[in-house]
Design a protein that fits this description.
It contains three helices and no strands. The chain has 124 residues and is mainly alpha-helical. It is rod-shaped and about 140 Å long. 0% of the residues are buried.
Amino acid sequence: MEILRADVKDLAFPGNLQDIMNRVLAAERLAEAQLVEARTKAEREALEATARADTTRLAAQADADAQRIRADAEVDALNRRSAAAAAYAQHPALLRLRELETLGALSANPAARLYIGFDKHMED
């Protein structure tokens, strides 16, 4: 006699062994689910940390750029004032013309009050 094939149709385990195997399978599934959840959480936290770092870096770069722009603007304004001062020193009539233009602009406002002082030496 020769056996060509053997199949198992139904295995019957003792009651407590079946419960133990079910618990082991449930524990394995739970462990796998917890592992997936832990990996997902770690990846999410890493992405959030990277995003925070990028945001901080970009904010610092924007602040530095803004400070550089303000400094450049201040230097430009000082250069223009220096050029104007040199022109006024060379041509005092330009300064007087600027004073008159400023008074004209102030006089256009009906609520503006202009007080012009006179030297005491002129009264003597």
